[in-house]
User: Fold these one by one.
Assistant:
Number 1:
Amino acid sequence: MMLIPSIFTPEDWSFTFYEGLNRHPDSIFKDRTVAELGCGNGWITIAIAEKWLPLKVYGFDINPRAIRISWINLYLNALDENGQPVYDVEKKTLLDRVEFQESDLLSYCKDHDIQLERIVGCIPQILNPNPDAMSKMITENASEEFLYSLSNYCALQGFVEDQFGLGLIARAVEEGIAVIKPAGIMIFNMGGRPGQGVCKRLFERRGFLVNKIWQTKVLQAADTDISALVEIEKNSPHRFEFFMGLSGDQPICARTAWAYGEAGGRISHALSVYSCQLRQPNQVKKIFEFLKNGFQEIRSSLDLSFEDDSVADEKIPFLAYLAGVLKERSFFPYEPPAGSKRFRNLIADFMKKYHHIPLNADNVVVFPSRAVAIENALRLFSPRLAIVDEHLTRHLPKQWLTSLAIKGTETDNPSEDVLTVIEAPRQSDLMMELIKKLKPQVVITGIGNYEAVTSSAFVHLLDVTREIGSQLFLDISDHFELSSLPGSNGVLKYLAGNPLPSHAAVVCGLVKNQVYSDLEVAFVISEEEAMFKALSKTVEVLEGTTALISQYYYGCLFHELLAFQLADRHSHKERDSQKAKSPDMIGFSSSAISVLNSAELSISETQIASPIHMDVDQSFFAIPSPVKAAIFESYARQNMSESEIDVTPNIKQYIESNYGFPIDSNTEFLFADCSQSLFNKLVLCCILEGGTLCFPSGSNGNYVSAAKFLKANIVNFPTDSEVGFKVTDKTLIKVLKTVKKPWVYICGPTVNPTGLLYSNKEMENILTTCAKYGARVVIDTSFSGLEFNFEGWGGWDLAGCMEKLSSSGNSTFCVSMLGGLSLKMLTGALKFGFLVLSQPHLIDAFHNFPGLSKPHSTVRYAIKKLLGLRQRKAGELMDAIVEHIKELESRSKRLKEILEKCGWDVLQSRGGVSMVAKPSAYLNKTVKINPSSSSGGNTATEEIKLNDSNIREAIAKATGLCINSSSWTGIPGYCRFTVALEESEFEQALDCLLKFKSIVGN
């Protein structure tokens, strides 16, 4: 073997490495494609080829002279003394099996699309004392000293492992993930100076199963300066691992080792050979493919090390799926309020294949949690009396559990305002006795473990509730398993042979995942179409939607359980015909039905084929990279500390800097999945104290519908077109004079739906008027933060005004601030709502309604990180927000031009995602519509005489475009359009408006 000064001389490191390779079975390299990283003079590469007969072995080194010497050594060993080839038992020479190439780690393989089965490496792991040296051009003419330093040191690689001198190995491992085949193995030499735990973790957190196959001790090279490691120890709790001489057993830290070495002692460190293999190679490859495309900064947060294989089997596939979603999608699509269609289909398929229950997506409604599902169901039915399993009452409103209005529950005319819940034991015989005696209209219960094995307890419950006309919700959460070998239970056994009766529904809360004990999604199963529709509408009115990524998480689990099964392999037996519905069965409450029928809710795909949604408060703009990074990092992290997910300081800073909203020691911050659910709890507080909600014309139609559904006392007061339908102190005085205990809702600074702005002075006038009459004010900032035309606006600074009014002496006056961050942080599917309360009485009242769907720790982590970027005005996120605002302004102007061209009177917006316009040219005109173009199938022509309410239906049927009518906006004559659509859909929306004009014209 030939050596020259610029090549690292083989010593204990490389000999130990080869000994580690020798500990593998002979089949380890046989007929494999192998690469050695840092081959030096090539002796290990040649030895691998000679001993194990690989198909091909590549020797890579960044030092160009090392490659030349390696080729020379290859020829010296491949030819005999006469210059003739030396053949092995397979009639091949070393020249057939070996190839040396200059390569920075595995760059040659990436550039030439080479897939490897084995990667081995004996790589330097000492930080270069002069990292700038690595930026020099590496050429044949470089000095011998510099080329030698390439073999002995490595520069900072941008990995957390850099602090331990392991950055180069970390980069080699990540590059290896991209080029190694799924069953491939990596083998690396690791100096034990950082400590064995650190060395092993380098591989484990990247998704490898690790096996230490050989270890010895070697003397520390005399020319290696470890003072950098001493500095690291001084500034961190980490301690490196050295030994005194070769015989020392007790490890010593770098500081002690440095002192011992300076005094003339010899120090050593452990040298180990690790063999590692990806535990879920295809998924891990997807994760790192995502990270290398602009998300390198979150590599340090990735942790794929798991003590429990079941946790790894659940989390790694989800991270791979999430990586794929974030990589492939520029935005999150619209999903119906009943839940993601894909997720509902997965639940139905799981029921079919594992429990032989023939369900479809329209039998499943998704809720944020089991508690939310139960409370929403009770509000939908509004029974005078409900019996609820004591295990399921914890999150119900307190007054339901303290009311004693039980007598007269069997009458046909119960009080709409009193709902009494009686807690009942889960034991079925006791539950039956209570049902028979009290005759409740709704029963919500689970089944005890000992009774869940057979169907008899469930059948008995069905019979008893049918006889007295009760609606039954049966909770199976405790008995539902997400497993490839799920245990059945009596309820599922029954449903395999019988349809679910019309008076019964099944509730299931999904909380039994292996990774996040507090991540919940729930679903309700009903085979009654009316129940499905009513529950879906109730979700939309009270919750908006269920967190989409939570649905993705559990959807991924269902998909993994279904992916390996053959489609339609099992035929399903016919189920018995359904029993007739009892004529005395309780129905949905009349008030709920009235609201659900009159509320302008989303148009579904079953009504209109491929609808274009200009009627939802969601941004479909491209999600910027910092948001994708924050979402992925929040799920990739493990063991997040409380401080990392405590978003309160960031929200406090956000509202103080944006609105000048005063914060004091009495202030309480409350968080939820969305601002809509927080608003609904405020409505309940208003009802609790006998207040009246005052909505100005031109308020969020979703909130108005929710308040009606919750049976609040509501006053709608007019606003004036001359001021863009904003509230003025004059209009406010008129209504406050006539209302007792008023609660005033104000959307601002940006108004939804008009997109106009309240100035600071206008808001001070409103608050002054409210203080005079002792009103409680709810300021909704959910649609603010995207202002584009702020000439003469000046923003908000409410602190001075509010402090002055608070000290004026009116004890009932208070201001609460409601907000959401989805629109202004460009997070798409990642929703986050906040509520700021400062009056102790109101805070106490709010806590009477505990059933709030709170944001998961991953959401709080991501939001905290994004708010931090925004507060620091960090580049890419702020650039994206600026571009987003410019695009909203551009689209607002374009939409105005098209609407005016089509005969609409437009109120030009100044911020946010929506604007309003009046269809003046269309009113009272009769239009003939053939719905086949948008809804498919039905060719019957329909005549519609247009007004400001039915024009929404006409446009949807004629073109597939969904807007909000004046029924939603509350402004007579004015419809609402949102503009934050995906670019191609926005263009289609404009075309639809032009198309509708031509249809009316014809």
Number 2:
Amino acid sequence: MYQWRKFEFFEEKFSGKVADDVTGKIQCCSSGKGRIVLGCDDGTASLLDRGLKFNYGFQAHSSSVLFLQQLKQRNFLVTVGEDEQIASQPPAVCLKIFDLDKMEPEGTSTSIPDCIQILRIFTNQFPEAKITSFLVLEEAPPLLLIVIGLENGSIYCIQGDIARERIKRFKLQVDNHSDKSQSSITGLGFRVDGQVLQLFAVTPNTVNLFNMHTQTPTRQTLDQIGSSVTSVGMTDRSEFIIGRPEAIYFYEVDGRGPCWAFEGEKKFLGWFRGYLLCVFADQRTGMNTFNVYDLKNRLIAHSIVVKEVSQMLCEWGNIILILEDKSTLCIGEKDMESKLDMLFKKNLYTVAINLVQSQQADAAATAEVLRKYGDHLYGKQDFDEAMAQYIHTIGHLEPSYVIQKFLDAQRIHNLTNYLEKLHEKGLASKDHTTLLLNCYTKLKDVEKLNEFIKSEDGVGEQKFDVETAIRVCRASNYHEHAMSVAKKAGRHEWYLKILLEDLGRYEEALQYISSLELSQAGVTVKEYGKILIEHKPAETVDILMRLCTEESELPKKGASSGAFISMLPSPIDFLNIFVHYPHALLEFLEKYTSKVKDSSAQVEIHNTLLELYLSHDLDFPSISQSNIDEGGNDPALRPSKAVSNGKMISDKKDVNDEKGHQERRRKGLTLLKSAWPSELEQPLYDVDLAIILCEMNDFKEGLLFLYEKMKLYKEVIACYMQVHDHEGLIACCKRLGDSGKGGDPSLWADLLKYFGELGEDCSKEVKEILTYIERDDILPPIVVLQTLAKNPCLSLSVIKDYIARKLEHESQLIEEDRRAMEKYQEESSTMRKEIQDLRTNARIFQLSKCTACTFTLDLPAVHFMCMHSFHQRCLGDNEKECPECAPEYRAVLETKRSLEQSSKNPDQFFQLVKSSKDGFSVIADYFGKGIISKTSNGPTEALRSNSASSANDF
């Protein structure tokens, strides 16, 4: 005991005396419900509030109160005391239960709780003996279990609802020693473990354990040595404490546990918040000492010399000692901060750490103690032990506080250890990962670097920031470690960046890309395809083919071809990687188009292919070429013996380039035709782009095809005109100018105009053109003369025969028109005479038969001016028109009506004038039909209103 450290973790809160209202000698006490109950030898029970202030008292027993206990679940007080009987009989020992919430009716001088039950303890079956201990257990309200220890070694038990006297009495026998002093029950204690109830019982010779959960309680002897004084207690872990002169013993259900050798007679034992309380008599000084022991940390938390102690109890978070002279001493525990300050002043950091851990302080408080201890060790230059303390603060102490202390190069091992622990707990940031990896590389500790990077348990994925680890390893030339991290984390872009940019292992990079999933492989190729194309063009094209086609993936997927192709990446997505390598791009797109016929991006693919096919030169330099010397010459291309004849090699190269150019143009024309089949209105490429490409690259064949497919015939002949291909021009017009085959006859007029403005002798071509113009009557002769008159190299003999034939033809037409005019004039004269005759002379009807039924005409009859006669019955209701002449008359009226309707639509008239080869004939036809010759304000006025705006169209 004298080797234990002493600290003042407790302090005296207050002291004083028990209130004068408590007159008798205090024999027992009980705490709970925020108050203390004292039992005295005069039979009174006194209730004290906080601060030991007297609340009220009452006469519990007429003689004395031996034991009492407050219940925790109900506000009941259970007392055992002596009550006076008839003078000739000794006092009877009774058990009483008081309901402290209920008071007896008013009229009494004092407040007396309602006594709800009184029981005699001793009966004929349970003979009387001196009571040495008393204990109450609330099993399940209102059920109680009261155990009473006797001097003769017996334990009387009363179980049940005592308030209603529904009880069961039974007896437990501990020891039946002849010497009562050796068999007296000196201490009792309940141990509740779930549904299991056990009772500790102590005698001077034994320590016993009763299993109360069985029908008949069974006894088990735990120790053959007991205690002769009533100094027992229970810990918060349900351990039974016994005080003997040589030591204090702890008992569990399986026997004796630890013991603590504290000398002296133990008068009182208790347990308070993990502390052992003990009042013992020091034989050397004859004084009583009250100690508070912290058994976990092996220290005395408080020690004070006191007078003779009467009672010890705990309430209001304090320890209360009641002395024999009725003075009181209240002792309370200091706060944790005060206790730690006390320890820090003495540099007892180990004790402080044990203290906060034993009292289950929060992690932040524990970390603060560890930090101070670490600072203390660091100040003493005990760096290893200081780091051990700092490591325990991870998660609560800012890592930069520790890192800053150990940044000295001589402490790099300690810093490495701290950073490793920081990563193990998943609390490391990117900067911490960077610092740890730099430590490994500074120490050249490849083994630990491997353990940190290449751990196979998969924990490494969560230990550190992957990108930071890769970047640091690359910077330190630990490329294999960086690749390992990237591969484990699935950071394919970093893995390939190291392979390609740092190591130049292109074959391995291609194999790695081939092993990736379809989507991920496409992403990596987009990012690093330029490097791969530069060094491994053929292999890269093969990988792209596998990515963009279903040749290797479709059997694995088991999906339909159309659905799978829609999931594949498009070749258009990879065009940017070929920016300096058009030959590889051309090879890739040709392979793709030969493999996939119905790609969703075929328009873009065909556009790109056309651009490549029609380009004059595909060998433009790459901007990635960095091995050019300062003079602009590539050292690898300097002249040597093998290329001494530079001119010959240059000529050979030019020939090969020209052949390649012609071959690409041939493929380009094939693509233009194959991608625009006759059944499609629009081609599988951008027509405008194709025309621009053909124009830029002077690709005449492609232009002619496109213009012809688009029915831009004038642009077709314009192409021939630009190159003065007269033979091709005439052949083209023969093919495209035939109106019977959907051609445009006006091409001959354009062709004639071209030769008329040519300024050179083209008699042969003009004669041939005039043949087709004359055949289809495309132009009037006057226009032909005006057009050819512009060419000074042409003589009149070129068009002599044409003009003669046209004049003869015109003469024939004039003669035919003259004869038709005479005929119409004669018919008009006859009709006028007939009209005049009808108006002035009577008409004699001489028909004797009906025109309809051919029977003899009889009355009633109807005669028409057209000299047709009918029975009235044959006409029916239609008596106003001749059935024979009516159809012809209606046709004339309908024609007249349609002509009048046409005259009301001037837009139609002007449209006919514009579209006709001879506008004058349209106007003459309108005059001939009498549509615009009337003087009315109808169609004539309409035509006049539009004539001004359309004068230029005649």
Number 3:
Amino acid sequence: MACRIDEGQQWLLNCLSAALDSKHDVRIFAEAALRQASLKPGFGAALAKVAASRELPFGLRQIFFFYASSSFKLHGALRCLALLSADMDDSMVLKLVPALFPSLHRIISSPQLYDISVRAKALSLVYSCTSMLGGMSGVYKTETRSLMSSMIKPWMKQFSLILRNPIQSEDPDDWSIKMEVLKCLNKFAQNIPSLTEAEFTVIAGPLWQTFISSLKVYEQLAINGNEDPFEGRYDSDGAEKTLESFVFQIFELLLTIAGSSKLVKVIENNLKELAYYTIAFLQMTQQQILAWSMDVNQYVADEDDNVYNCRASGALLLEEIVGMSGAEGVTAVIDAVKRRFSESQKEKAAGSTMWWRIREATLFALASLAEPLLKAQRAGLTREIGPLIEEFSAEDYGINEYPFLSARVFASIARYFSVISPGFLQTCLYSAVRALATEVFNAWPPPVKVGACRAVSQILPESQCAMIRPHLMSIFASLVDLLNQASDETLRLVLETLRAAVKAGAEIAASIEPIVSPVILNLWAANVSDPFISIVAIKLLDAIKDSPGCIYPLVTRVLPYVVPVLVEPRQQPEGLVAGSLDLVSMLLKVAPGDVIKAIYDVCFGSVVRLVLVTDDRGEMQNATECLAAMIAGAKQDILAWGTDSGFTMRSLLDVASRLLDPNLESSGSLFVGSYVLQLIVHLSAQMSPHIPDLAAALVRRMQTCQIAGLRSSLILVFARLVHMSVPDVNQFINLLLTLPAEGYENAFACVMSEWAKQQVEIQGASQIKVTTTALALLLSARHAELWKINVQGQLIKSNAGIITRSKAKLVPDQRTIPLPAKIRALLADMLIKIQEQTGAGDEQHDEDSDSDPIGAFDPLNEINMASYLVDSIIKFAQADRPLFDHLSQNLTQPQQKAILMVLNR
């Protein structure tokens, strides 16, 4: 609602506007205005709006100080400063803080004069300024430290006074001022931990009191209450003032303390109690129970995404406790979960209906900490965790009366399955299968089925076949039935579970393929525009395809779906064409020759036409990948399958020409590199006459592309051409020397300049191997043209002091070095990387055939990179030592050391 302003107030606004515009002494206007105006609630906001809309002369702060010291409401003035502080530069902040903080301290420390809302707003201004000082500390470290050192003690005393009283459920305004204190403390701890450390003992007791008392209020209002009576509360700036946001802020501060080497001692002596109380905050709230009971999809989404809530924040704090203190932290958490489990047992025996909540929270904590606790067990920091999980879980899976507890038991066992006894694991798996079974669907609430799916999906991939074989048919039947009932998030979970079941039961997949595949295809078609569902569905079909005896029936099922779509692409719903191409590509990868031919017969012409005519980027990308996969699988046979091999080859070249059109949007050409690689590797004889035209088109496409990934893929093609020119690499160089390139003397200079910049961005083991060895080949050629190209090298630091923007314009960047020196540096960097991997015992693995269709069958992939580089360096040194030594002058010390290690072998 807009505030109403009387004539006197409007006169004040006009005066302030004039003051801001004229930059006169604004105190004169302010004093006159305040004598005339009758300030009313809401006027401060209007004042803030006027002040924030114009440039702020520093003298304007006098208005706000006068305004704050008067008997009028000063909330608006504080809002003004909060708005304006965000736009102040560093030098102004350094002047503002020493002038402003004493006034803010006076306001905050005078509860008898100022109400809570005003004091909270003053604290928010402290928080804003401290945040800015933190961002400046790198450049103004001495100034900020000096500025804050004198202020830290009085501020910490005030923070202590505000936090010392327990949280009261009936006083949400008290939460708001305490939350501002917590935010300020967090910034102090983050930005000036060394200064905060000495004074933090003052705050430790009140902070612990706040933590403990807030739990009582949280349990009363959120966990046990039907709703937070203060939900939806916001301050005048739109910031949330709920109990949830307050508790979240406590955890934020505790996380900062736990992660600070200087401040962690504040909590080190109290880890067990901290873990114990934190687990209580992990309990499901009544609101969560109601929401998740009504919509299981929301339950799945919130659990998977770790949304903004106390459960997620508390779990992060427990993880920090485990990670920061070694065995002590692990012991603290284990002791805490044992205490909480014991309490739940006592509550249950006493007949409490709430006993299950703390047990669910205990299991949630353990499930969240599975990775660090298992790591701690392997390191000998704790005893076996498996028996503990079994003890906590033995009574509770399959209890329909408490579905969320049953769901948590299933999920927790799945996280710790590697340390759980086979007998207990089999019993749990059987219970999960029973929970999924169709005949008892109505008896098992949706959350239990969610937990059962999580258990099955995580246990099956690692289970022994003998254990799961008796249950597989029941699992498949149950999951297929669930697919017909699931939606949104649960649908994705069920699909992932079914995929795990297919992989685990590959030996019986052929018998269930006729049941599963049609259902999955229908789901895929219905959700093709939803990538979260369609991608998982395709992965599931891929798992079925790879199972023994399944590819032929699956192909006969898929092709009738996709062929009509590809024949009439413009008549289809959005996303169906691109999705159909994805399905075809999936079938083509690592498929038998007769399957590839069957797909070629009905799809090749349609896919080629689609590339040539479509303007849809997604369709063009997927069609390119589809054709690349077809060539990779068919190789030379692709030319024999059609009635006219010449027509097939011309079609493939037409596709390359369209994708390499320099005027085509870059994203449409994204996978052209992979496509062209298939042509030159598998159809090298037919491509040989077209190499000059292809190289010219590659250069033109490179010069207009806007996507780094596309440039990298084009460089990979050039690297292939280098290898194909062996034993005379000069052929490749001379070819590019004859081709033009805009802005360069020739195409060779263009390609190598881009390659020198882009090499460090190349991703993938086989791609790095191909490009790196190609650079070694180019260097070993010692072609005269290499020395005519200058590229970016290491930054040479100047001794001229700080380089300002004006100096940078006058002194050009001294980073240009000859191309051979850059190549030598890149090869040396690769040697260093290999040496580091060898020293660490790492091995470099190539990608699987799905991500690199050439790599699995590529002779270049058999190259031993280390041996290749060593051999190349030694041969170069022996052939031309003076040149070799000259190039070494441009190397850094680590690079020179790596080269010397090679020569001294």
